[in-house]
Specification:
Distance between the termini: 40 Å
Radius of gyration: 13 Å
Helix content: under 10%
Largest sheet: 7 strands, mixed
Oligomer: single chain
Number of strands: 11
Shape: globular
Strand content: over 45%
C-alpha cells in the first residue's frame, strides 16, 4: 500500500552531521519510524513520527543528537543526525505503520511496521 525509499546516507567524519530522507509513494497517512542495523547486531529503533500530527518518539540514548521531522507536502520524513559517532555506523531503514498505537512501546517495535524501505548506509569514521 506504500513504498518507501531512503536516501542521504554516506561517509562522514565523527562529530559531523548527516540528514536522511524517506520518500513515500502510494497511500499516505502512516506513522513512520527509523531503524538501524549494524553488522552482527539486532535492528535498533531510532525514532518515529506521526504522519498526521507532530508527536515524535526517540531512542533515549539518541534524544538530543537525532531529530525526526516530516514534510507532508512532499510525503517525506527526515532524520537529522548531529555529532555523529563511529557507533552510529549502520544501515538505516525507514518503515511505515498503518495501525493506531500509543506510546514508545508500540512505535519502537519492528512488528508495528509492515512496510520497509531498502535502507541507506551511514558510515562514521574516527
Amino acid at each position: 500500500q506504500v513504498q518507501l525509499v531512503e536516501s542521504g546516507g554516506g561517509l562522514v567524519q565523527a562529530g559531523g552531521s548527516l540528514t536522511l530522507s524517506c520518500a513515500a509513494s502510494g497511500r499516505t497517512g502512516y506513522s513512520v519510524g527509523w531503524f538501524r542495523h549494524a553488522p552482527g547486531q539486532e535492528h535498533d529503533f531510532v525514532a518515529a513520527i506521526w504522519w498526521s500530527g507532530s508527536t515524535t518518539y526517540y531512542k533515549d540514548s539518541l534524544k538530543g543528537r537525532f531529530t525526526i521531522s516530516r514534510d507532508n507536502a512532499k510525503n517525506t520524513v527526515y532524520l537529522q543526525m548531529n555529532y555523529l559517532k563511529p557507533e552510529d555506523t549502520a544501515v538505516y531503514f525507514c518503515a511505515a505503520a498503518p495501525d493506531v498505537g500509543y506510546g514508545l512501546n508500540f512505535y519502537s517495535s519492528r512488528r508495528s511496521y509492515p512496510y520497509w524501505g531498502q535502507g541507506t548506509q551511514v558510515t562514521v569514521s574516527s
